[in-house]
Design brief:
Helices cover about 40% and strands about 15% of the residues. The chain is an alpha/beta fold. The chain binds pyridoxal-5'-phosphate (PLP).
Length: about 375
């Protein structure tokens, strides 16, 4: 049996009529860039995120660096991030000319460790970007307190956890800006690249709107900016899909529950953790082999049995070849938890459109490997 890692086409078929309708509506309208479909989606997204503003941009990476620019972060500034994130979080900092400071993650949630964060702050630190990794919202309450105490800007990289929430707080509630990626493999995915910034700050809203469109808020009037817009076709796709995101998250959570119950007796692997009160959206369902030296064995076993398991992220930023490529970057404190995770992680297939048969097969094969390796 083959079990894929994504269900993109299945998802398209489930909502095909609505998506096709919106796509044809855009095509017939003649408005493909900065048109009414983009405005409609931005309104929907702001309402959904419960923020005052939402701005569609070209992709999730642009969403981060445009937010940093809007908050005045640049050369000479330090921005703290967890070392275990998708590479783009660091890239966004380098794009604005700032220094990426890499710190450790919490051993359970895999999100930035607030103690490591606070210990890494210097006079030059201007911002922190917690990442809601794998779908688990970071400890924003603690992080926001630290940011306030040290007068730091706070940008949530929420490429992976849309529809999640923390314990007693909403995403985007405690930060200056929250960034989202809509690339197809994310939980709310369009048919290509896309991203957004959501915020309650009128300054961030205005600045990102200006920067994404050649520095222009008014026709023919320009201050320096860039070109990073979410196009109307993608906005049309997302306008449909956003109405399903809660249902799709609930499905992801039910598959995660099935995996966790099915694998509860495995002693050679650790299962994902969900802190009390947190809505984990299982962008990824990541297990760790207790013995890191056996990770590749589990990965190869599953792949050999037709299961498209992957790793996220087995090569953290600071261990990429040639790091830091002449860019400004620094590790502060130990990265023990990041390194342990990198060497032991395996992501199992996780998407809303999984079937019971597929999930049962994944469980059966992981259990088989566990038995052989006890
Ligand atoms: C996907 C991702 C991004 C980048 O989003 P793109 O749309 O691919 O530019 C940034 N941060 C994290 C944590 C991501 O997973």
């Amino acid at each position: 049996m083959q079990v894929g890692f994504y269900g993109h086409v299945r998802q398209y078929h489930n909502v095909k009529d609505e998506i096709d309708k919106n796509i044809f509506q855009v095509l017939e309208s003649g408005s493909y860039v900065m048109g009414p479909m983009l405005s409609k989606f931005e309104e929907k997204l702001a309402k959904y995120a419960d923020t005052k503003y939402a701005i569609g941009v070209g992709n999730g990476t642009d969403a981060i660096w445009l937010s940093l620019l809007a908050l005045g972060i640049g050369k000479g500034d330090e921005v703290i991030i967890p070392a275990n994130t998708f590479f783009a979080t660091a890239e966004a900092i380098w794009i604005v000319g700032a220094k990426a400071v890499l710190v450790d993650c919490d051993p359970k949630t895999k999100c930035i460790d607030p103690n490591a964060l606070e210990a890494a702050i210097t006079d030059k630190t201007k911002a922190v970007i917690p990442v809601h990794l794998y779908g688990h919202t970071a400890d924003m309450k603690t992080i926001a307190e630290i940011a306030k105490r040290h007068d730091l800007k706070l940008v949530e990289d929420n490429a992976q956890s849309i529809d999640g929430h923390g314990n007693g707080f909403r995403q985007a509630e405690l930060s200056d800006a929250m960034t989202i990626s809509f690339i197809i493999q994310k939980n709310l995915g369009c048919f290509g690249d896309g991203g957004a910034v959501v915020t309650n700050s009128p300054t961030v809203d205005k600045e990102v709107r200006r920067l994404r469109n050649h520095g222009s808020l008014k026709r023919n009037v320009h201050t320096f900016g860039f070109n990073s817009r979410l196009d109307d076709l993608q906005a049309g796709v997302l306008s449909v899909k956003i109405d399903y995101i809660t249902k799709w998250t609930d499905l992801r959570r039910s598959w995660a529950k099935k995996y966790s119950e099915g694998l509860a007796d495995c002693t050679t692997i650790e299962l994902p953790y969900e802190a009390t009160g947190v809505r984990h959206v299982y962008h990824l369902y990541v297990v760790e082999t207790v013995d890191a030296s056996k990770r590749d064995s589990l990965l190869n076993y599953l792949q050999g049995e037709g299961i498209d398991a992957k790793t996220h992220y087995s090569i953290p930023i600071h261990t990429q070849d040639g790091y830091p490529w002449g860019k400004d970057a620094e590790i502060r404190g130990s990265l023990n938890n990041v390194e342990k995770n990198a060497s032991s992680c395996v992501s199992l297939p996780m998407f809303p459109e999984l079937t019971d048969k597929e999930a049962d097969y994944v469980i059966e094969k992981v259990k088989e490997w566990d038995l052989k390796n006890k």
